[in-house]
Amino acid sequence: MTTDYLIDIDRVTGEFISGWRRIRQSIDTILTTRLRTRIMRLWWGSDFLEMQDKPGNEEVLLNGIQAAIEAINEYEPEFTVTRLTINEFDGSGRIVMTVDGIDKIDTARRRVSLSV
Known about the structure:
Layout: E1 7-9, E2 16-18, H1 19-32, H2 58-75, E3 79-89, E4 95-103, E5 108-115
Antiparallel strand pairs: 1-2, 3-4, 4-5
């Protein structure tokens, strides 16, 4: 088993981070980056934010959840989503969600709550 884990830079402190801190930051970045908006990485991000400007009906919620799960599983190699729950989705466009999954580094179950 290899111990070569991904390393990133904390966007607040500028410190090197790895493990769960890096994964949590990566999930947030994936879900808040629209596809085709990064010049050198047009394919990176998610269509999750497309649901912000749409009515909060079942179809929109399911499409948003599907887009989020697919993007996290595609672009975050050290984490696998097992469940994603939308906790709040109101007329202001604010979306609060909980992402549950498996941290592949230490095979622990992890949970992160996000507000976008």
